[in-house]
Amino acid sequence: MIVVMRSNATEEELNAVLTRIQEHGLKGRVTYGEERNIVGVIGAAIPPTLREELERFPGVQEAVRITRPYKLAAREFHPHDTIVQVGDLVIGGGSFIVIAGPCAVESEEQIMTTAFAVREAGAHMLRGGAFKPRSSPYTFRGLGEEGLRLLAQARAETGLPIVTEVMTPTDVELVARYADVLQIGARNMQNFQLLEEVGRSGKPALLKRGMSATIEEWLLSAEYIIAQGNPNVILCERGIRTFETATRNTMDLNAVALAKRRSHLPVIADPSHGTGKWYLAPPLALASLAAGADGVMLEVHPDPDRATSDGGQSLTCENFAALMPQMTALANVLGRRDARWRR
Amino acid sequence: MIVVMRSNATEEELNAVLTRIQEHGLKGRVTYGEERNIVGVIGAAIPPTLREELERFPGVQEAVRITRPYKLAAREFHPHDTIVQVGDLVIGGGSFIVIAGPCAVESEEQIMTTAFAVREAGAHMLRGGAFKPRSSPYTFRGLGEEGLRLLAQARAETGLPIVTEVMTPTDVELVARYADVLQIGARNMQNFQLLEEVGRSGKPALLKRGMSATIEEWLLSAEYIIAQGNPNVILCERGIRTFETATRNTMDLNAVALAKRRSHLPVIADPSHGTGKWYLAPPLALASLAAGADGVMLEVHPDPDRATSDGGQSLTCENFAALMPQMTALANVLGRRDARWRR
Amino acid sequence: MIVVMRSNATEEELNAVLTRIQEHGLKGRVTYGEERNIVGVIGAAIPPTLREELERFPGVQEAVRITRPYKLAAREFHPHDTIVQVGDLVIGGGSFIVIAGPCAVESEEQIMTTAFAVREAGAHMLRGGAFKPRSSPYTFRGLGEEGLRLLAQARAETGLPIVTEVMTPTDVELVARYADVLQIGARNMQNFQLLEEVGRSGKPALLKRGMSATIEEWLLSAEYIIAQGNPNVILCERGIRTFETATRNTMDLNAVALAKRRSHLPVIADPSHGTGKWYLAPPLALASLAAGADGVMLEVHPDPDRATSDGGQSLTCENFAALMPQMTALANVLGRRDARWRR
Amino acid sequence: MIVVMRSNATEEELNAVLTRIQEHGLKGRVTYGEERNIVGVIGAAIPPTLREELERFPGVQEAVRITRPYKLAAREFHPHDTIVQVGDLVIGGGSFIVIAGPCAVESEEQIMTTAFAVREAGAHMLRGGAFKPRSSPYTFRGLGEEGLRLLAQARAETGLPIVTEVMTPTDVELVARYADVLQIGARNMQNFQLLEEVGRSGKPALLKRGMSATIEEWLLSAEYIIAQGNPNVILCERGIRTFETATRNTMDLNAVALAKRRSHLPVIADPSHGTGKWYLAPPLALASLAAGADGVMLEVHPDPDRATSDGGQSLTCENFAALMPQMTALANVLGRRDARWRR
Question: pLDDT tens for residues C20-66?
Fold first, then answer.
């Protein structure tokens, strides 16, 4: 940490800062500048609240943190790509995975039709919501455990592993009994009890970025999961909230490229939520891949205009089947391996 | 709902839309325009997903919702101010309440000192966190139940009712045993199970606006609580996330004035989180009051530069004591009653 | 400036940074930390591009600027409030000014009616646009010089000084012939030729904050004007663009309070544009005053529902007359002087 | 336009709305709903201010515009791609163009070295700033006309057409004498006099999206240029301002895909400004192409760590040479033609 003194700070003010730094068992080294002085804080265990603490001192202009607040998720301390294994699939490390399925599980027929269609088209994993977070209390909120059973049945019949959302800590055990990967939704990215419970479950986690979360906060939330002994975290960019209203969210592909650089975790992208429009999902799926994403997650529904939720952003099975070969061709040019390939 | 057809939509496309509207038991009335036609959808029970459904139809440019999605929280259907009673205090309906206390309960001495100081200065209610949501897993996360006990002790000794945050549905019962008002934090504004559990608790709820939540989403979250039979919801603006980084958040006082107009619920403001800087809290507290807020919530700490969290935004007891008479003078000019006054 | 080295930076990488710093005639002082080293850059004339330059060096994690980039606008180097004098009026330094008038000058009758009405109600200055920036080429763009003549006539008949917008450098001379204060609109906050031309005109400038400008950028734009020898700059907060769409902009009163602290320039607020709704302008005008603004600028129109622009955010003359005594009462409680009082 | 009445609006209030609509020479058709009534406004020439006008009427909840405010830039009225011809190059219509060069022209040696290097690597056009908009008055602002002369010399020696920014209406004639394409920067996207002057110049325009401009506003600014009789507008996404600070801007590739759909104009992307980091520019350049961009504009500098501006986001000539074959391979897979191919 660096403490920047004001140009008119007195010697007593500087000394008070140095004394406080020593009280924390740290060392302060002063650099005397022409316009103002700065203090470098040295020590391995700088308390997270030190910045605010020192900024209250008279004579201090600002205190600047110089290390990233996450460690376990940081590439700096773990240079090689983490590879998350789900059954036979490898996620991360140069492969490319496609996860597809409906926003919500609605019926046996709907989920089976979709599961077979997306497998046929080449998808690697099936998604589908049994528990749905909804802004309004008056909208469909999922089939609950019945939805989980239908997902498990779809897996049994198609062989596709399943990923589904868990919304509250007490449901983790239940959802983990059915799912291969536990999804933490954007609205729950900072539901810290949920993060820890998923961490303890031992199941791979798919952690969506909160719609107004910074990349740093996203990686800190991953840190919560990893800190419970679970390194199998897949990050998922799904669009952020900005001033632009022509699209539901603003897909942040800078974040995909930067998260890949700052962290060793695999990063995938969800262009269905990221755009909110089915006709924008294909170009943004291709763009995500080109930006370096380790995979994409797409909403696919056999009859989107009768879907109980998010129909406007779902691809039909036909649209999805048309998109798959484009993604594969692009992946080949980019030198990516299919997620089913052996390492 | 209004369905806007494209300028080149065919008659079959228009008829397909009308047919689908009828399948939902609704009526569609066409207005034939010079450039394009529009369809008004008539009926009491328009499904929340109808908009997305119709926007997928060929020939449809867009579908526009014309009613607000919340009812119980809407002033349109409940013109008079809701007044939330907490002990002898009345919140809403022209009164003005001041809630003060530390970000986190840290020790008996800290909370007792603060409680007596803020009561002495004129505060009506005591705040303090026992369970703290923190972005990083490496920071202080509260004393838990011990913190609740200390809050209860502070209430017993000072007579001030207490408000404290509850973070997860399974803790609602525990926290409700100690607290007078249950706070739902910004990060949990869309933790729907928590909203419902707080709704069922029967305790008044203080619902903070999520840091990237629209006013409509905020009122929908209030709707979740009220729908459980609990009308005692206090809305709290605490700053939104914008591009500006000179302040921690951007206090949105437009939202205070607009929420008062769109909803009958009391609305208070939290300038400590809204600014993130102790020296900006006083002017913004006064501004909140002038904008129509029914009260303010302020962080006060006897020794902010040694606080375990958010010290940089806490007022000292002396700063708070200096601010109270300014707020009272302003409230008088604005014709507000003290929250202790009988109705 | 502080240069933070990576934890694994080599000694050669550190030396390369030090060498480059010396090439600029500056000194670099290394603080050797336990996890990483940092370099403090010392010297009076640090080039503005040094930060980017050093961040490209291998082994550098980031470079952090520790001084504010503006000087002439900074309170740090000019502790006392700047007071802008316009005729008999004083703006800044504890006074409070009310500027009122229509969005655009439309006709002699309209501007005269408004001018007399706002003077009667107590306004200090008249506003009105002769040149209007409009997003669409198909909307009314002002009367041009005829509008300026009508404003001058309104000043002659009412005695109110006038403020009006200038949109392009070549118009500065023309507008300065008529106006008492030259307004630079939000869209032109970074039209640097315009800033300099207004700086050279010698007329007081009213500088609106750009709708996505940071406070720092706003003060840098003020710096452009002052650097031409014109210290008479009035800052005007008019709402920023955020994700919230229920209001036209989000009024940022944090910025009013912070700009007052960081700069010595007077700061006023424009709640008409800041909210975009006439019924939100009064509460936000009061809030601006309470937050510390040196004045407000309000849109007033004798017949807003027939206005050629921004009618939805204009107060009627009656609404404005009802608001003035509330503002005056609040200003009294806050200890503010009327802008007409002698210093 | 649709006017939505309040649920409790009276018949007089409804009639007042209908009367006003008739006064404008338009027709109003009422749809009587169960909860509220709506009025469709019919007519070819709806005034742009009608929405605000009607929203002030008692009994009106809101008025909703149902047509897009731009015509000349809209694909709805011009279904085929506009192709902008610059010398032998075709931009739009399925081709892919690469524009490269330094942020600012600094010296003959710098621009010549860069021009030859980017031509050698395969770039189609040369960029370079002679007039630079800078937030701070203390930074390098370009060589002015000398910079234009150097660009012209680079064109003469390499055969690459040149694009350069023009910042103020009075400079359009000068810059148009040297440049093949006139760039309008993000800060000037709503400098309407400049848009019109560029429109009248007859030269192709490269219109950058403002950093907080909606897609609609961007297309409206294009409308200003086209309305002067100049259809040769190239749109350029260059990142928007959001809450995320880890990157300089947030590249909005949704906007690229959506602008291609809503408008017939070519759309290119600038990942150098869109990310602000040289190491993120390559993945985002590839992503832009995959999202449907008709080209990319990249900053390339022979010695970025000594650049006078934006060095941190510039590629070296070697980095650029390494990126070109990746872009070409991707373009081939996507079925794009090189911009030099004959139509």
Answer: 999 888 888 888 877 788 888 887 677 877 888 888 888 888 888 77
Q: How many CB atoms lie within 10 A of CB A23?
A: 9
The verdict on D177 touching B (C-beta cutoff 8 Å) is: no
Amino acid occupying residue D121: A
Q: Phi-psi bin for C206: left (phi > 0), alpha (psi -120 to 50), beta?
A: beta
Residues 101-120 of C with CB under 8 A from D: none
Count of beta carbons in the 10 Å neighbourhood of residue B246: 16
What backbone phi and psi angles, to 5 degrees, belong to A283?
-60, -35
Rg of chain A's alpha carbons, rounded to an integer?
23
Q: Judge contact between B272 and B283, C-beta under 8 A.
A: no
Mutate to test the interface with D, among C21, C23, C135 (most CBs of D within 10 A): C135
Classify the phi-psi angles of A244: left when phi > 0, otherwise alpha if psi is within -120 to 50, otherwise beta.
beta
CATH T-level assignment (fold) for domain A75-338 = TIM Barrel (3.20.20)
Which residues does C202 contact at the CB level (< 8 Å), separation at least 6?
C176, C230
Kindly state which CATH superfamily the domain A2-64 is placed in.
Phospho-2-dehydro-3-deoxyheptonate aldolase; domain 1 (3.30.70.1140)
CA distance C267 to C219: 11
- Extended beta strands in chain A, E state: 2-5, 27-32, 37-42, 60-64, 84-86, 89-91, 95-101, 125-127, 162-165, 181-184, 205-208, 233-237, 267-269, 295-299, 337-338
Residues ≥6 apart with Cβ < 8 Å to C36: A66, A67, C4, C5, C6, C7, C9, C61
Residues of C in contact with B279 (CB under 8 A): 261
Least CA distance to B259: which residue of chain C? C246
User: What is the amino acid identity at position B39?
Assistant: V
Give which of C122, C117, C206 is closest to C157, Cα–Cα: C117
**Chain C residues in contact with B243 (beta carbon < 8 A):** 212, 214, 240
d(CA B60, CA B39): 10
The predicted-structure confidence for B212-258, as pLDDT tens digits, reads as follows: 999 999 999 999 999 999 999 999 999 999 999 999 999 999 999 99
User: Domain-by-domain residue ranges, chain A?
Assistant: 2-64, 75-338
For residue D68, the model assigns a pLDDT of 75
Interchain contact B22–D (C-beta under 8 A):
no
HSE at residue B95, side-chain half, CA atoms within 13 A, is: 22
Helix ranges (DSSP H) in chain B: 11-23, 50-55, 108-121, 145-158, 172-178, 192-201, 215-226, 253-262, 271-275, 281-291, 317-333
Which sign, positive or negative, has the C-alpha torsion B229, B235, B238, B239? positive
- A187 neighbourhood in chain B, CB within 8 Å: 190-191
Residue B46, classified by CB atoms within 10 Å of its CB into exposed (0-12), middle (13-18) or buried (19+), is buried
Q: Is the minimum CB–CB distance between D322 and chain B shorter than 8 Å?
A: no
Task: Give the count of Cβ contacts less than 8 A between chain B and D.
Answer: 62
Phi and psi of C298, rounded to 5°? -130, 145
Copy the structure tokens of residue D278.
């040289």
Q: What is the DSSP string of A186-205?
A: GGGTT-HHHHHHHHHH-S-E
Rounded Cα distance, B96 and B290, in Å: 11
Q: Is residue D155 within 8 Å of D161, Cβ to Cβ?
A: yes
D140-185 pLDDT, tens digit each: 788 999 999 999 999 999 999 999 999 999 999 999 999 999 999 9
Mean pLDDT, chain A, rounded, equals: 92
Query: Cα(first)–Cα(last) distance of chain C, in Å?
Result: 42
Q: Which chain B residue has its CA at the smallest distance from C289's CA?
A: B287
